[in-house]
Write a structure and sequence with these properties.
The complex is a heterodimer of chains A (112) and B (324). By secondary structure, chain A is α/β, with parallel strands linked by helices. In chain A, the strands form 2 sheets. Chain A has a 3-stranded parallel sheet with strand order 1-3-5. The longest helix of chain A has 17 residues. In chain B, 69% of the residues lie in helices and 0% in strands. Chain B has 12 helices and no strands. Chain B is globular. The chains are: A alpha/beta (112), B mainly alpha (324). At the A-B interface, loops of A face helix 3 and helix 9 of B.
């Protein structure tokens, strides 16, 4: 993820990558949801403590992108998860766009 | 009990100061790591991101509290509280104001070492009680690691005590001032080797790179912390920061005593904080430079090299004392 590396560094905003969904605040979906990965994605989402936010990064994660309509693809995160807070379009999206999405999430949290 | 003692307990070397230092060291750690990796690190919350650890703490306090089915709720409630309280207790034995610790008695070094073992046992209990494969595996690795670093840690911490002729941390610190040299520079190679062993053991105690196999994010989710959320996680992270502070200030008080600042009453606490910061930056720097060792490599390093080395340094220090 370029957003974590020196040039962009989202830790400036206090965001860190964590290993366990139990420690996470934001779930970032970065690819199309396949039949294989759907139950796992839902499982991870359910493991996260409230308040939790979801960000779909890239065209694939939003709608399935070029994979939409494949026999094994259920579409994007929007088709599977109860709510997706921010969509970051692009194929692939620029790191600036991902950071912009993150800031939008932070703004949303501040508004409550 | 007079007022100055209560103030000392609550404010300067007491709770308020220690908590602030713990948050400050987390900030310092993240910032140093970011600098090593050519990043900025926390930047926007407070001046230079200083309030980021505090903001994270408050955020975690407000998050949902979950205990997985099958987990032992009692242990998962008690362990975080103890994990924050025990290092705080141990920190009272450290002579933060330059001459005398809040609490000190002959043998408080042993008490601090005992608290470090207890912390490792609590980590094992937390992982085991989480009813999660990753947490249990992380706990196993953590316990294995404890078996490897505790012995050299205790052996090498005895070296400055031997030199000072006392097992009280305050007396060790004061005797370094009297001798005119910090233990690190005393008896040229031995003090330095002892310091390096202590540094490696404290990295292992804190489960930091290169000895972070117990919480390895890429293979173990989050190790023994995997199932913790909300308040429990907040307290454990505070406890980990406090034990970071504990290891750094143990290093500062056992190895980096100096004859000048002890005489100046107002400078001594400042000098101590600077020493603690130097030790903390050293540990964070190593974190940025190294890769992770496998758990068997960690064990091999400690059992085949560190323990004989620690015994050797201990004997050499004793001989140095007998035939100066």
């Amino acid at each position: 993820m370029a957003a974590l590396t020196p040039k962009f560094d989202i830790e400036r905003f206090g965001a860190l990558k964590v290993g366990s969904p139990r420690h996470a605040d934001i779930l970032i979906v970065t690819g199309p949801v396949t039949r294989e990965s759907m139950p796992r994605l839902i499982h991870i989402y359910e493991q996260m403590p409230e308040p939790k936010l979801v960000m779909a990064v890239g065209a694939c994660a939003i709608s399935g992108g070029v994979f939409a309509g494949c026999y094994n693809v259920c579409g994007g995160a929007c088709n599977v998860l109860p709510k997706v807070d921010v969509l970051v379009p692009g194929c692939p999206p620029k790191p600036e766009a991902i950071i912009n999405g993150l800031i939008e999430l932070l703004r949303r949290l501040r508004r409550g | 009990m007079d007022l100055s003692y209560v103030m000392a307990l609550l404010l300067f070397p007491g709770y308020a100061f220690l908590m602030l230092m713990a948050f400050f060291l987390e900030w310092l750690d993240r910032k140093t790591l970011a600098k090593v990796q050519d990043r900025y690190g926390p930047l926007l919350v407070g001046p230079m991101g200083l309030l980021q650890p505090l903001a994270d703490f408050i955020k975690l306090l407000s998050k949902e509290d979950m205990v997985p089915k099958g987990a032992n709720k009692g242990v998962l409630t008690a362990a975080p509280i103890l994990m924050a309280a025990l290092p705080l207790t141990a920190l009272f034995f450290i002579p933060m104001n330059g001459h005398r610790a809040l609490v000190s008695f002959e043998g408080d070094l042993i008490a601090v070492l005992f608290i470090l073992v207890t912390l490792a046992l609590l980590i094992f209990l937390t992982g085991w009680a989480s009813a999660n494969a990753f947490a249990a595996e992380g706990a196993m690795r953590s316990a294995l690691q404890m078996l490897s670093y505790e012995i050299p840690l205790a052996l090498t911490a005895i070296c400055p005590a031997l030199m000072a002729g006392s097992l009280s941390i305050s007396t060790i610190y004061a005797s370094q001032a009297k001798a005119g040299l910090p233990f690190l520079a005393f008896a040229p190679p031995f003090g330095a080797i002892s310091f390096v062993i202590f540094l490696l053991c404290s990295l292992a105690e804190r489960e930091r790179v290169p000895f972070d196999a117990a919480g390895a994010v890429t293979e173990m989710v989050a190790g023994w912390m995997t199932e913790l959320t909300g308040r429990r996680l907040a307290l454990i992270r505070l406890g980990r920061n406090l034990s970071f502070l504990l290891m750094a200030s143990l290093m500062a008080s056992l190895y980096l005593g100096d004859p000048i600042t002890v005489k100046l009453a107002w400078l001594a606490p400042l000098a101590f904080v600077l020493k603690v910061m130097a030790c903390a930056i050293l540990m964070s720097f190593i974190r940025g430079l190294m890769a992770r060792l496998r758990i068997d490599q960690t064990l091999r390093i400690f059992w085949t090299y560190m323990i004989p080395l620690a015994v050797g340094v201990l004997l050499a220090t004793k001989l140095f004392l007998m035939f100066p």
